What does this fold into?
Amino acid sequence: MKNTVDEINSVADANRKAVTNTIFSPRFYTTDFDAMDKLNIEPVRAEWDAMMAEYEGDNNHDHFQRDATFADEARDLAAKMSPELRQEFLDFLVSSLTSEFSGCVLYNEIKRNVTNPDIKQLMEYMARDESRHAGFINSSLKDYGLGIDLGDLKRTKKYTFFKPKYIFYATYLSEKIGYARYIRIFRQLEKHPEKRFHPIFRWFQRWCNDEFRHGESFALIMRANPNLLRGGNVLWIRFFLLAVYATMYVRDHTRPELKQAMGLEPTEYDFDVFRITNEITKQVFPILLDIDHPAFRANCDRLFACSQRAEEGMAAGGVLGYARKAFWSVAGAAVFARMFFIPVISNRLPDTARMVPAW
It folds into this structure.
């Protein structure tokens, strides 16, 4: 089966893709600001203050600046890309920019709507970082003449309301799996620089350390409020873990040229990322997904197959096409439900929540 992504050939295509919400695309969020304002981080005060000092030190303040050869190198390498790789790379840039800018918008909104000094300070620092990331990616899109209008994106993209605890689970995982994805790519291209088909990958190591620290912030918030990690909330943790892993698997297998160009096999890459993320989430989550359970990998493949057939139905159009899309969407939901009941691994939380990006 041939895997495709929606083609991006114009500024209008890029902006339309960024603003469109699908099950696999990054979303914009809003939340309960009053509840955020009431958060108490005193139980982890020492770790929190140390982390705030790191943010204040801003060790990446000069990192997201393109050197003199960046645009030339990007242009020369772009001329060597296959059409398929070019489209998957542009899709990667647009979705990555949307994800980073989503964080920037959310963190700024929380900062403006709370008075809690701890939360306000944290959100200011994280919005700063995400703004740099989004701007840096947008500069690479502009090299292709495909820059995103971030102001228009903020005004026109739909927002999804999430309770604070859902924000904590989903954003913590997004930041940590983002670290795992970027560091795995960086290490691969560090060993095989001949496969680095764009200069942006040279920035990934320090970039993903920002992601790691953002995840640490949400880990400390959850450890300071342990009710978020008990009782029925464990089921929500289980849901978000599975949703993030499953979405990544399907998305990466939808654009396999991207990983193959780096010398990575998509399934092996995804499970390497899952293993790194499982190790990281031991700092805060009382359960881990059993990614080595035979049913887990098999159902990941089934999810991808259902997604592909649903897309084929949508592309075919008409009554029969939409019926096929509905059928395979329901089939995919059933696979996800079966995966939810695969036994999980219990985890005893360590005394200290903070970790270092050691991968």
